[in-house]
Specification:
The protein is globular. Helix 6 crosses helix 8, helix 35 packs across helix 36 and helix 46 runs antiparallel to helix 47. The protein is built from 105 helices and no strands. By secondary structure, the chain is mainly alpha-helical.
C-alpha cells in the first residue's frame, strides 16, 4: 500500500503529473474543486497550473482525461492566464480528445475550444482546428469541423475568420469518409447563413450532387440576418450595456442595429490572389495610362484600356492605391470625349480606382482638373466628386478636405453650362447630406437663397452608401428640437435618410440612443472637428438657429424692444443726464435678466443699446453697464450673427479702453460662444486692424490668445490671421508686436512647428523672438477647451475626435499658402540631365531641382517625372550625389507636406534601401530623410504592403540594424499599425539570429514594440516555420520581450492631453490595457484599475507617482502614516519573478548582502510599500527596524492581501535582518515570522519557489545561533513553514544547512531532518532516500558530539519508520560508525513507542499535515491528530503485513459486546511492534482499510472527509483495497442511522464505482495472472453495494444525469461482456446486474435517469463501434421507464426531457432514424412521446420552454401531429404495434378480458413486490386454460425475463409436485438482493427490502431450503441478508471451501478458536479487524457467531 497511497500526500499540482492514473484522477478532481473555488481571476494559484493544462487534456487514460477536460474547461473559463495555454491545449484537444470514442470527451473538447475563443483567443484556436483538418483520422476532422461550425454559429463571422475555412471546404467535400462530407455540408450551410451568396463562387467546383444538396439546404435558411448568440469577454459587458439601453429605450435602437449586424463579407475576401504580372508586358502601365487612355484617338481602345484599369483596380483593391495618383488626372482629362461608351468606361474605371485610395490622396489631382475649361470635364469631375462623397462619412470628409472642394464647386454652380451647374449642385448636396449643414454652411455663406434651396433639394434625393452619418436635414426642419437631445449622430440606417424632407418623429426618437460614443443626451458628434456639445442653453438653441437672421429696421426693433422693456427705459436711453442713462441701463439689465430665451428679441435689444449715444457713450459707468448687457443678451438669448454685426464694431473700439476693456472682452467672449469663435475672431481681427489705435490692436490679439485657449482651435481660419499677425509684427508699437508673438505662441500649441514657415522672411531679430516664444511652448499640450463647441471633449466622446482636433489645425495650415505647381519646371531636359552618364551634369540637374524647390517653398504633389529621376540617383555610384539627392528629398517632404504620402511607395522605400550603404554619413543622411518624410506622412503608408518586409529581408547588416532601430523608435508612438506589419516578423526572427551582433541587438530591442502591436500570440505563431532549434531560442526571447512589452500609447495620450478635463480620471479607469495577453499596463496605471474594482482600497491605492507627490506635500507626519502600509499591485509579484528569471535584476543569492542588493530591494519596494515605512525599514539605526517590524505586526491581520502581494519583498528584507548583529531586531523579526507563517497557513497560501529559495537558506543560517531561544524560534518557524511549503522541498534546503561549518547549525539541521522524516515519511527525502541517508550518515563520524547524536537519532527515526531496509539505503559505513548506529537502534528498540507520541505532542502543527490522506488538513485539536497520525501509521502497517495475523491485531469480541459506548481503540500502542516483515514479499493482499472501521464512530465529526477517503479507494487498482472500501460503504449504507452520512457523496461514489467497473473491464479481465474468482468477488461487492444504495430512495435520487449515464453505460457493457459469461459464476453476476439496472431505473430521480438514457441512446446510435445489442438494452431500459411513466409523470421535469428528445431528434431527424438498421429506435421514441402525450394531453405543448427555436423543432411538429391524431381517433392503435414497440400492454376497452387478466399477471411478475404471486397466478392460469397463449406477452421481452418466467413456473410445479431436485440456476431469482459480504459485519444488518421494510423469513425460506439441498449451505438467520458468496458457490466444492475461497481468510485461526468456544462466548474472533469469517460445516458454529454479532449490533443501537 505504501507505494499506492504515497501520492495521496502530494500537493495537487504534483498529483496531476503523477505516473499513476489514480493519482492524476484524484489530482484533476481536486484541481477542479480548487478552480471552482477561486473567485479572483488573477489569483496566483492559476499560474501554478499553467504548464499542466495541456496534460489535463492529453491524459493517456480515458477516464482520467475526462476529468482533466472538465478541470481544463473551468480553468480556461476563469483564469486570466489561460490565454497563454491556447496553442498547446487546443492542439492537445485536437490530437488526443477528438479521436476519443466517448461523446462526453468530444463535447468537453469542443467546449474548451469555444471557451478559448470567448477569452479572445479565436485566431489561435482556429489555426489549430484548421491544422486538425489535415489529420488522417476522420474522427478528428469531423470534430474539428463541428467545432468550427459551432464557433461560427455562436460567435459569428466577425470573430471566426471564414476565408481559411472556405479554402479547405472543397477538400472536405472530396473526403472518402461520409461523416466528414456530412459535417462539411453542415458547416457550408452555417457559413452560407452568415455570408449568403459570397459562398457560391468558392464552392462552384464541388461535386454537382453535393452542390445541389447544399442549394436545397440554403433555400431553407431563414432570410433574416443572423446574430451571434455568444460574445467575447470584451464584448459581454458591451452587450449587457446594449441590452440595458434597449430595455430602457424600448426598441428605439432597432433600426440602428439592423445595419450593424448585416453580413458584410465580401466575396472578394474569400478569393485567392493570382499572379498576373508575369503575363503582362513590362511597359504595360505606361502604354495603357499615358498612351492609350491619354493620347489614343481610337475610342474603342480608350474604352478597352479603361476597362483594363477597372479590372486592375477591382482586383488589387487597396494595393492599387499607390498608382491612383498617376492614373486619375489622365482619366479626368479624357472625360472630354463625349462618346457614351467611353464616358461610361472611364466612369467605371475612376470609380473603381477611387475605392482603392482615399479622397485625401487624389484631392490635389481632382481639384487641378476642376479649373479645366472643357465643360464636359468639369461636369464629369463634379459628378465623380458627388459619387466619391457618397462613399465618405463625416470623419473621412474633414473640413480641411471639404473646404477646397466646396470652393471649387461653388465656382461651378455659377457656370454658364447647365450640366456643369447641375453636377456641382449634386456634389454640394451630397456633401451636405454626408457631413450635415453645420459643417457645410460656413462655406455656403455667400450663396444666394435660390441656389441654397437647390443644393438642399439635391441633398434630399441623395442616398449614401454608408447610410446617414451626421446631422440630418430632418433635424434641421424641426425648428425647435427637444431640449437637451443629441443630434442624430449614429448610423441610423438608410431608412432614416430616404425621405428626409418630412420631419418625422422617428429619427428624433432614435437620436438619443444612437451610438454617439457616450450615453444619450451627453455627446453630439458633428462634422470634422468632432464638435459634440453639452454646452449652455444658448448653445442648444443655436443648433437650430445657424441661419443668419434678417436685418430688422429701427422701427421694428423699437416696437419689439418696447414690448419687453419698461417704457421709461426706452425714453431715457438718449437722455443728456448720465445718471438717468445709468438708471435706464440698470432697468434694462434687470429686464434682460428676467427674460426667457424664447422671448428675448436680441437684435432689437442690441439696436437699442447702439442707439444714440450708442458706443460713443462718454460716461464709463454707463458704458460698462452697456457692455455687460451685450454679454448678457449674447449669453441668454438666441444671438445671431446679424445681432453681432451691430455691436462688434463698438466692442472692438472699447477693447483697448482702460476702464471698459474687460467688459468689452467679456462681451466678445459671449458673442464668440453664441456665434462660434472662428467667425467672431475673423470679424474682430479685421475690424481691429482697420483701426489705427495700437492699444485696441494689441488687446484684440490678447483677447484672441485667451479665446483660443478657452474655445480650442477647431475651425479657425488661420490664413486670415496670418496676414493680420504679419501686419501686427510689422507694427511700430512694441505692445502690438508682443501681443502678436504671444498669439503665435498660442497658435503654435495647436498648429505645431509648421507655423514657423510662414514667418521665415521676417527680420532676424523678430524671428528670434518668435523662436523664443515657440521654445517656451515646446512640449506643452494645448489646454482642454472650456467653452463653446469644444466642450465635447469633456463629455467622453470618441477618442478619435479628441485625437483629431489638433490635426485639424495642422491640416488647415497645410492649405494656408497656395502651393506652387512645379511640374512644368520638371522638363524632360532636366530629367535627362539628372540621369546623365557624366556625374557633373547629374549634379547640375540635382542643383537645379534643389533651386526649384527652394524657390517654390510650397509645392503641389504633381511633380511629373521627378520621382523616377531622383529614385535613380539614390543608388548613384557617386556618394556625394546620393547625399545631395537625399537632401533634395528632405526638402521635397517639407515643401510638399502631407501630400508626399502618395510618393512613399515609389520614392520613400528606395530611401530606406540607402540605409544599407556602407558609408556612415550616407546612412545618417538617409535616416534624416526618412524621418523628415515620416513626419509628414505618418507611419501607416510605410508599414502598409510588403515593401518594408522586403527591405528587411535583404541580408545587409547595415540596412537591417538601421531599419530595425528606426522601427524601434517609431512603433512605440503609434496607436495602431496596419496588419501588414506581421509580414516583417519572419525577417525580424532571422535578424535575431543574424551573425552580426549589432543586428541581433537591434532586433531584440525592436521585439517588444512589434509585440506591442501584434500581440504575443501572433508572434509566437509566426515561429511555427522556424527550425526547431531557432524556434526555441526565439520563443525564449519572445517570453523575455513579453515581460518588457510597453502598452500602446492610446490611453495615456488621451488622459494626458486633458489634464484639466473632468473626464480624465474616469478615462483612466475606463480604458483597460489594450493587449490582453500581456502585462501591458504600466505600474502606474495598475492601481487605478484596482481602484475601480476594489472600493475598499480606493482612496489608498494610488499610483506610484501619485503617492510620491502626496508624501511630499503632506504637512504632518501623522497624516502621512494613514492608509495601508502595503499597496496591492496586480501581478507585481509575478512581474518581479519574471524579472529575476530573465536576469533583469540580481538573483537573491549572496553570502553577505552587498549594497546593490539592498538598493534593488529598495527600488522594488517603492511601488508597493508605504514611503514612510520604507524609510524606517532601510534606516541605518536598528531602532527604526524594530519600529518597522512593530508596524508590520500590527498591520498583519488587517492587510492580508497586501502582505501576500509583497511577501517576496518582506521575506527578502527579513533575510537582510538576519545579517544584523542586533539581537532585539533578530528576535522581533522571528516573532513576526512566526505570526506571518501562521497567517499564511490559515490563508492556505503556498510559498512560491522564488520566495522559498530567497528566504529559507538564510533562515537556516540562524538555526545555528548560540542563543537557545533563537534556535527554538527558528525551529518553530521551520515547523510552521511545512504548512505552506512542501516538506519534500524543504528537505534539500535543510540538507544544505548540514554542510555548514557551524556545528550547532549542523546538529539542528540534522534533528530537523529527523523530524521531517518522522512526520512525513520517507517521501520527503530528496532527491532520493538513499542519497539523503548517505549524506546524513556521513555525520555519524562528525567530531562534534551533538552532531553525531543528531545524525544517529535521525537514522534511528528512519529505522523506526522503514525497518532494516535503512541499512541498504545508507550504504557502507565505517566499522566504528556502524557499531554506534546499531547500538543506538538497539537502545531505541527497548524504549516503548513514546517517541512518536511525544513528537506528535511537541509538533502539533506538523502532525496536522499527516492526515492529508483522509482530507483532514488543519482540522481538530492537536491531540486528536496525534492519535490519527498513529492510526494512519498502523494502517500502513496493516497494508503490508504478512499472512500471519497476530493476536494483538485482533479485536476482542467480548469487550465489544459488553461495551455500550463507542468502541475505543488504543491504536498508538500498535507502533511498538517490530515491523521487519513489512518488507517481505506480500503473498495475499490483506484487507487494508478495514482498520479504520472501529473508528467510524470516533470519526463521525469528520465523516465527510473519511467517506471521501474511502470512496477514493473504491476506484483503487488493487482489488483487495477496493473490496475493503466497498465493505465499509456497505456497512454504512445498511445502517439506517448512518446511511444519511453518504448524502452528498453519491455522485462521487458512483463515479468511483464505474471507474472501477471500467478498470475491471479494460485491465483486470485481460490480466492472465489474476484469479478470475477475485474479479467475481469484486463484481459481487460492487453490485451488492449498488443494490444497497439504490434501495435507499433519498440517496438514489441524488445521482446526477451524467453520472447515471456513465453508470448505466458501465452496467450494460458489463452485461454484454462475453468474457464474464465464460466464467462459471458469470451468469449469476449478469443476473444480479440485471436486477441492479431495474433498481436504478426505479429508484433514481426519474428526470435524471430518463435524460441519461436518451443521451446514451443517442451516443450509442452515433458511435459506429457500439454493438447493436448495446442499443437494444438501452432501449429496453427506456421501455421500462415508459411503463413506469403513469406513476412517475408528476415527478418528472418534462421540459428537460422534451429538450433532450428535441436534441435527439435534431441529431437524428426522422429520415436519419429510418436509415438505422433496426426499427426499434424510432419506435422507442414514438412510444415515449405517445405515452407522454397520452398522460399530459395538449398541456404537453406548454413544456417546450427550454427549446430555443420551437418552430424549427421537429419535436413540436411531431407532438402537434400526435395531439391531432389522438383528437381524431381517440387513441385507436393496434395492439400488435404497441406490443412490438415497447413490450407493454395498452389498456383498451376493445381488448378481450382474457388479455386483461394476463396483462395483470405479467404486471405482477414484472413488479418487484408481487413477482412470486404473479408467477403463482400464471401457473394456476396455465393449469386452468392449458390452451392459453402467453407467447405474445413473452415475445418481445428480454431473453432473461422469458427464461425467468419459465424457470419460475418450473419451480412452482416442482414444489407443488414435491420434487426435490431442480436445475442449478433455479434457486436464484432475479429479484433477489445481492450483497457484498467480505466480512460478517456486513451480514449483521437485516435484509432491507426495496421498500425499506423488513421481509418476513417465509419469503426466502423456500428458496434457501432448495439451495441448502443443492449446495449444502447452512441457513443464515432469516432476518439476515444471505451472502452473495454463498449463493454463488459451486456444487463440486466441499461446503467449507465456498466462502473461504471468496474471502481468502486465515481459516486455521478461526477454526481453532471456534473449537475452543463452541457453546460459550468467544473472545478472540474479532470481525472488525480480521475482515474475514469462514463458513464452517458445523451449523452451530455459524449460528453461534450470528447470535453474538446480533448482540453486538443490538448493544450498539
Amino acid at each position: 500500500m505504501g507505494d499506492d497511497s504515497e501520492w495521496l500526500k502530494l500537493p495537487v499540482d504534483q498529483k496531476c503529473e503523477h505516473k499513476l492514473w489514480k493519482a492524476r484522477l484524484n489530482g484533476y478532481e481536486e484541481a477542479l474543486k480548487i478552480f471552482q473555488k477561486i473567485k479572483d481571476e488573477k489569483s496566483p494559484e492559476w499560474s501554478k497550473y499553467l504548464g499542466l493544462i495541456k496534460k489535463f487534456v492529453t491524459d493517456s487514460n480515458a477516464v482520467v482525461q475526462l476529468k482533466g477536460l472538465e478541470a481544463a474547461l473551468v480553468y480556461v473559463e476563469n483564469a486570466h492566464v489561460a490565454g497563454k495555454t491556447t496553442g498547446e491545449v487546443v492542439s492537445g484537444v485536437v490530437s488526443k480528445v477528438f479521436n476519443q470514442p466517448k461523446a462526453k470527451a468530444k463535447e468537453l473538447g469542443i467546449e474548451i475550444c469555444l471557451m478559448y475563443i470567448e477569452i479572445e483567443k479565436g485566431e489561435s484556436v482556429q489555426e489549430e482546428l484548421l491544422k486538425g483538418l489535415d489529420n488522417k483520422n476522420p474522427k478528428i476532422i469531423v470534430a474539428c469541423t463541428e467545432t468550427l461550425r459551432k464557433a461560427l454559429s455562436e460567435f459569428g463571422s466577425k470573430i471566426i475568420l471564414l476565408k481559411p475555412i472556405i479554402k479547405v471546404l472543397p477538400k472536405l467535400f472530396e473526403s472518402r469518409d461520409k461523416a466528414v462530407r456530412d459535417e462539411a455540408k453542415l458547416i457550408a450551410v452555417e457559413i452560407y447563413r452568415w455570408i449568403r451568396d459570397a459562398l457560391r463562387h468558392p464552392l462552384q467546383n464541388i461535386n454537382s450532387v453535393q452542390l445541389k444538396e447544399l442549394e436545397e439546404e440554403w433555400v431553407k435558411l431563414p432570410t433574416g440576418a443572423p446574430k451571434p448568440s455568444r460574445f467575447l469577454r470584451s464584448q459581454q459587458e458591451l452587450e449587457a450595456k446594449l441590452e440595458q439601453q434597449q430595455s430602457a429605450g424600448g426598441d428605439a435602437e432597432g433600426g440602428g442595429d439592423d445595419g450593424d449586424e448585416a453580413p458584410q463579407i465580401d466575396a472578394y475576401e474569400l478569393l485567392e490572389a493570382v499572379e498576373i504580372l508575369s503575363k503582362l508586358p513590362k511597359d504595360f502601365y505606361d502604354k495603357i495610362v499615358s498612351n492609350v487612355v491619354g493620347k489614343d484617338t481610337n475610342v474603342m481602345l480608350v474604352a478597352l484600356a479603361a476597362k483594363c484599369l477597372t479590372g486592375l483596380a477591382v482586383g488589387l483593391r487597396k494595393k492599387f492605391g499607390q498608382y491612383a495618383g498617376h492614373v486619375v488626372p489622365t482619366i479626368l482629362e479624357k472625360f472630354k470625349e463625349k462618346k457614351p461608351q467611353v464616358v461610361q468606361a472611364l466612369q467605371e474605371a475612376i470609380d473603381a480606382i477611387f475605392l482603392t485610395t482615399t479622397l485625401q490622396n487624389i484631392s490635389e489631382d481632382v481639384l487641378a482638373v476642376m479649373d479645366n475649361k472643357n465643360p464636359t470635364i468639369k461636369q464629369q469631375t463634379s459628378l465623380f466628386i458627388a459619387r466619391s462623397f457618397r462613399h465618405c462619412t463625416a470623419s473621412t470628409l474633414p473640413k480641411s478636405l471639404l473646404k477646397p472642394f466646396c470652393a471649387a464647386l461653388l465656382k461651378h454652380i455659377s457656370d454658364s453650362a447647365p450640366e456643369v451647374r447641375d453636377a456641382a449642385f449634386e456634389a454640394l448636396g451630397t456633401a451636405l447630406k454626408v457631413v450635415g449643414e453645420k459643417a457645410v454652411n460656413p462655406f455656403l455663406a455667400d450663396v444666394d437663397k435660390l441656389k441654397l434651396d437647390k443644393i438642399k433639394e439635391c441633398s434630399e434625393k441623395v442616398e449614401l452608401v454608408h447610410g446617414k452619418k451626421a446631422g440630418s436635414t430632418a433635424e434641421k426642419k424641426d425648428s425647435k428640437p427637444i431640449p437637451g437631445r443629441a443630434a442624430a449622430s449614429g448610423a441610423a440606417g438608410d431608412k432614416d435618410t430616404k425621405d428626409v424632407s418630412v420631419p418625422k418623429p422617428g429619427p428624433l426618437k432614435k437620436a438619443p440612443t444612437t451610438k454617439a460614443g457616450g450615453p444619450p443626451k451627453k455627446g453630439k458628434t458633428a462634422a470634422p472637428g468632432g464638435s459634440a456639445n453639452t454646452g449652455t442653453k444658448s448653445k442648444k438653441g443655436l443648433e437650430t438657429k445657424e441661419i443668419v437672421e434678417p436685418e430688422l429696421s429701427i422701427e421694428v426693433c423699437e416696437e419689439k424692444a418696447s414690448a419687453v422693456l419698461p417704457p421709461t427705459c426706452i425714453q431715457l436711453l438718449d437722455s443728456s443726464n448720465w445718471k438717468e442713462r445709468l438708471a435706464c441701463m440698470e432697468e434694462f439689465q434687470k429686464a434682460v435678466e428676467l427674460m426667457e430665451r424664447t422671448e428675448m428679441p436680441c437684435q432689437a435689444l442690441v439696436r437699442m443699446l447702439a442707439k444714440k449715444p450708442g458706443w460713443k457713450e462718454t460716461n464709463f459707468q454707463v458704458m460698462q453697464m452697456k457692455l455687460h448687457i451685450v454679454a448678457l443678451v449674447a449669453q441668454k438669448g438666441n444671438f445671431s450673427k446679424t445681432s453681432a454685426q451691430i455691436v462688434l464694431d463698438g466692442l472692438v473700439d472699447k477693447i483697448g479702453d482702460v476702464k471698459c476693456g474687460n467688459n468689452a472682452k467679456e462681451a466678445l467672449t459671449a458673442i464668440a460662444e453664441a456665434c462660434m469663435l472662428p467667425w467672431t475672431a475673423e470679424q474682430v481681427m479685421s475690424m481691429a486692424f482697420l483701426q489705427k489705435n495700437p492699444k485696441n490692436q494689441s488687446e484684440t490679439l490678447n483677447w484672441l490668445s485667451n479665446a483660443i485657449k478657452e474655445f480650442g482651435f477647431s475651425g479657425l481660419n488661420v490664413k486670415a490671421f496670418i496676414s493680420n499677425v504679419k501686419t501686427a509684427l510689422a507694427a511700430t508699437n512694441p505692445a502690438v508686436r508682443t501681443s502678436a508673438i504671444t498669439l503665435l505662441g498660442v497658435m503654435y500649441l495647436y498648429v505645431g512647428p509648421s507655423l514657423r514657415m510662414f514667418f521665415e522672411d521676417e527680420k532676424p531679430a523678430l524671428l528670434s523672438q518668435i523662436d523664443a516664444e515657440f521654445e517656451k511652448m515646446q512640449g506643452q499640450r494645448p489646454p482642454t477647451p472650456t467653452r463653446g463647441i469644444s466642450k465635447h471633449s469633456t463629455s467622453g466622446t470618441d477618442e478619435v475626435e479628441d485625437g483629431d482636433e489638433p490635426d485639424d489645425g495642422g491640416n488647415d495650415v497645410v492649405d494656408l499658402l497656395s502651393r506652387v505647381e512645379i511640374s512644368d519646371k520638371v522638363t524632360s531636359e532636366l530629367v535627362s540631365k539628372i540621369g546623365d552618364k557624366n556625374w557633373k551634369i547629374r549634379k547640375e540637374g540635382l542643383d537645379e531641382v534643389a533651386a526649384i524647390i527652394n524657390e517654390a517653398k510650397f509645392i503641389q504633389p504633381n511633380i511629373g517625372e521627378l520621382p523616377t529621376a531622383l529614385k535613380g540617383r539614390l543608388n548613384d555610384s557617386n556618394k556625394i550625389l546620393v547625399q545631395q539627392t537625399l537632401n533634395i528629398l528632405q526638402q521635397l517632404a517639407v515643401a510638399m507636406g502631407p501630400n508626399i504620402k502618395q510618393h512613399v511607395k515609389n520614392l520613400g522605400i528606395p530611401i530606406i534601401t540607402v540605409l544599407g550603404d556602407s558609408k556612415n554619413n550616407v546612412r545618417a543622411a538617409a535616416l534624416a530623410t526618412v524621418n523628415a518624410w515620416a513626419e509628414q506622412t505618418g507611419m501607416k503608408e510605410w508599414l502598409e504592403g510588403e515593401d518594408l518586409s522586403e527591405e528587411l529581408k535583404k541580408e545587409n547588416p547595415f540596412l537591417r540594424q538601421e531599419l530595425l532601430g528606426w522601427l524601434a523608435e517609431k512603433l512605440p508612438t503609434l496607436r495602431s499599425t496596419p496588419t501588414d506589419l506581421i509580414l516583417c516578423v519572419p525577417h525580424l526572427y532571422s535578424c535575431l539570429e543574424d551573425r552580426n551582433g549589432d543586428v541581433r541587438k537591434k532586433a531584440q530591442d525592436a521585439l517588444p514594440f512589434f509585440m506591442m502591436h501584434l500581440g504575443y500570440e501572433k508572434m509566437a505563431k509566426a515561429t511555427g516555420k522556424l527550425k526547431p532549434t531557432s524556434k526555441d531560442q526565439v520563443l525564449a526571447m519572445l517570453e523575455k520581450a513579453k515581460a518588457n512589452m510597453p502598452s500602446k500609447p492610446a490611453a495615456p495620450a488621451k488622459t494626458m492631453s486633458k489634464p484639466m478635463g473632468g473626464s480624465a480620471p474616469a478615462k483612466c479607469q475606463a480604458t483597460p490595457a489594450p493587449v490582453e495577453d500581456s502585462v501591458s499596463s504600466t505600474l502606474e496605471a495598475k492601481p487605478d484599475l484596482k481602484k475601480a474594482k476594489a472600493p475598499g482600497v480606493s482612496s489608498k491605492a494610488k499610483s506610484a507617482q501619485g503617492k510620491k507627490v502626496a508624501s511630499k506635500t503632506a504637512i504632518k507626519e501623522d497624516d502621512d502614516k494613514s492608509g495601508p502600509i502595503f499597496i496591492v499591485v496586480p501581478n507585481g509579484k509575478e512581474q518581479r519573478m519574471r524579472d529575476e528569471k530573465g536576469l533583469k535584476v540580481l538573483k537573491w543569492n549572496f553570502t553577505t548582502p552587498r549594497d546593490e542588493y539592498i538598493e534593488q530591494l529598495k527600488t522594488q519596494m517603492s511601488s508597493c510599500v508605504a514611503k514612510w515605512l520604507q524609510d524606517e525599514m532601510f534606516h541605518s539605526e536598528f531602532q527604526h527596524h524594530n519600529k518597522a517590524l512593530a508596524v508590520m505586526v500590527d498591520h498583519l491581520e488587517s492587510e492580508k492581501e497586501g502582505v501576500i502581494g509583497c511577501l517576496d519583498l518582506i521575506l527578502k528584507w527579513l533575510t537582510l535582518r538576519f545579517f544584523d548583529t542586533n539581537t532585539s531586531v533578530l528576535m522581533k523579526a522571528l516573532e513576526y515570522l512566526k505570526l506571518l507563517f501562521t497567517l499564511l497557513s490559515d490563508e492556505e497560501y503556498h510559498l512560491t519557489e522564488n520566495e522559498a529559495s530567497s528566504f529559507i537558506p538564510y533562515l537556516i543560517l540562524k538555526v545555528g545561533e548560540p542563543k537557545d531561544v533563537i534556535r527554538k524560534d527558528v525551529r518553530a518557524i521551520l515547523n510552521r513553514m511545512c504548512l505552506v511549503y512542501p516538506a519534500s522541498k524543504m528537505f534539500p534546503f535543510i540538507m544544505e544547512g548540514t554542510k555548514s561549518k557551524n556545528s550547532k547549525q549542523r546538529a539542528e539541521c540534522l534533528e530537523e531532518l529527523g523530524c521531517l522524516v518522522e512526520s512525513y515519511g520517507m517521501n520527503v527525502c530528496q532527491p532520493t532516500p538513499g542519497k539523503a541517508l548517505k549524506e546524513i550518515a556521513i555525520h555519524i563520524g562528525d567530531r562534534d558530539n551533538a552532531v553525531r547524536n543528531a545524525a544517529l537519532n535521525t537514522i534511528v527515526t528512519v529505522y523506526n519508520v522503514h525497518g532494516d531496509q535503512v541499512f541498504k539505503l545508507i550504504g557502507t559505513l565505517s566499522e566504528k560508525d556502524m557499531s554506534m548506529l546499531e547500538e543506538r537502534i538497539k537502545r531505541s528498540a527497548k524504549r516503548p513507542s513514546a517517541v512518536p507520541v511525544k513528537q506528535a505532542e511537541e509538533k502539533p502543527q506538523r502532525t496536522q499535515n499527516i492526515n492529508s490522506n483522509a482530507n483532514m488538513l488543519r482540522k481538530g485539536p492537536a491531540e486528536d491528530m496525534s492519535s490519527k497520525l498513529n492510526q494512519a501509521r498502523s494502517m500502513s502497517g496493516h497494508a503490508e503485513a504478512s499472512q500471519m495475523v497476530r493476536r494483538e491485531f485482533q479485536l476482542d469480541l467480548d469487550e465489544i459486546e459488553n461495551d455500550n459506548g463507542t468502541v475505543r481503540c488504543e491504536m498508538p500502542e500498535l507502533v511498538q511492534h517490530k515491523l521487519d516483515d513489512i518488507f517481505e514479499p506480500v503473498l495475499i493482499p490483506e484487507p487494508k482499510i478495514r482498520a479504520v472501521s472501529p473508528h467510524f464512530d470516533d470519526m463521525h465529526s469528520n465523516t465527510a472527509s473519511t467517506i471521501n477517503f474511502i470512496i477514493s479507494q473504491v476506484a483503487s487498482g488493487d482489488i483487495n483495497t477496493s473490496i475493503q472500501a466497498l465493505t465499509q460503504i456497505d456497512e454504512v449504507l445498511r445502517q439506517e442511522d448512518k446511511a444519511e452520512a453518504m448524502s452528498g457523496h453519491i455522485d462521487q461514489f458512483l463515479i468511483a464505482t464505474f471507474m472501477q467497473l471500467r478498470l475491471i473491464y479494460s485491465t483486470h479481465m485481460s490480466d492472465e495472472k489474476l484469479d478470475k474468482d477475485e474479479i467475481i468477488k469484486l463484481y459481487s461487492c460492487i453490485i451488492g453495494n449498488m443494490i444497497s444504495l439504490f434501495q435507499i430512495e433519498s440517496l438514489a435520487r441524488e445521482a446526477s444525469t451524467g453520472v447515471l449515464k456513465d453508470l448505466i453505460h458501465g452496467l450494460i457493457t458489463l452485461m454484454l461482456d462475453s468474457r464474464i459469461e465464460d466464467l462459471e459464476e458469470g451468469q449469476q453476476v449478469i443476473r444480479s446486474v440485471n436486477l441492479l439496472v431495474v433498481k436504478v431505473l426505479e429508484k433514481s430521480d426519474q428526470t435524471n435517469i430518463l435524460s441519461a438514457l436518451l443521451v446514451l441512446l443517442q451516443d450509442s446510435l452515433l458511435a459506429t463501434a457500439t454493438s447493436p445489442k448495446y442499443s437494444e438494452l438501452v432501449m429496453k431500459c427506456l421501455w421500462r421507464m415508459v411503463r413506469l411513466l403513469p406513476d412517475t409523470i408528476n415527478s418528472i421535469n418534462l421540459d428537460r426531457i422534451l429538450l433532450d428528445i428535441h436534441i435527439f431528434m435534431k441529431v437524428f431527424p426522422k429520415e436519419k432514424l429510418k436509415q438505422c438498421k433496426s426499427e426499434f429506435p424510432i419506435r422507442t421514441l414514438k412510444t415515449l412521446l405517445h405515452t407522454l402525450c397520452k398522460l399530459k394531453g395538449p398541456k404537453i405543448l406548454d413544456h417546450l420552454t427550454m427549446i430555443d427555436n420551437k418552430n424549427e423543432s421537429e419535436l413540436e411538429a411531431h407532438l402537434c401531429r400526435m395531439m391531432k391524431h389522438s383528437m381524431d381517433q381517440s387513441g385507436n392503435k393496434s395492439d400488435k404495434e404497441t406490443e412490438k414497440g415497447a413490450s407493454r400492454i395498452d389498456e383498451k376497452s376493445s381488448k378481450a378480458k382474457v388479455n386483461d387478466f394476463l396483462a395483470e399477471i405479467f404486471k405482477k411478475i414484472g413488479s418487484k413486490e408481487n413477482t412470486k404471486e404473479g408467477l403463482a397466478e400464471l401457473y394456476e392460469y396455465k393449469k386452468k386454460y392449458s390452451d392459453a397463449d402467453i407467447e405474445p406477452f413473452l415475445k418481445n421481452s428480454s431473453q432473461f425475463f422469458q427464461s425467468y418466467v419459465e424457470r419460475g413456473l418450473r419451480v412452482i410445479e416442482m414444489e407443488r409436485e414435491g420434487k426435490g431436485r431442480i436445475p442449478t440456476s433455479t434457486g436464484i431469482s432475479s429479484q433477489m438482493e445481492v450483497t457484498c459480504v467480505p466480512t460478517p459485519t456486513s451480514t449483521v444488518s437485516s435484509i432491507g427490502n426495496t421498500n425499506g421494510e423488513e421481509v418476513g423469513p417465509s419469503v426466502y425460506l423456500e428458496r434457501l431450503k432448495i439451495l441448502r439441498q443443492r449446495c449444502g449451505l447452512d441457513n443464515t438467520k432469516q432476518d439476515d441478508r444471505p451472502p452473495l458468496t454463498s449463493l454463488l458457490s459451486k456444487p463440486a466444492i466441499p461446503p467449507v471451501a465456498s466462502s473461504t475461497d471468496m474471502l481468502h481468510s486465515k481459516l486455521s485461526q478461526l477454526r481453532e478458536s471456534r473449537e475452543q468456544h463452541q457453546h460459550s462466548d468467544l473472545d478472540s474472533s474479532q470481525t472488525h479487524s480480521s475482515g474475514t469469517i469462514t463458513s464452517s460445516s458445523s451449523t452451530t458454529n455459524i449460528d453461534d457467531l450470528k447470535k453474538r454479532l446480533e448482540r453486538i449490533k443490538s448493544s450498539r443501537k
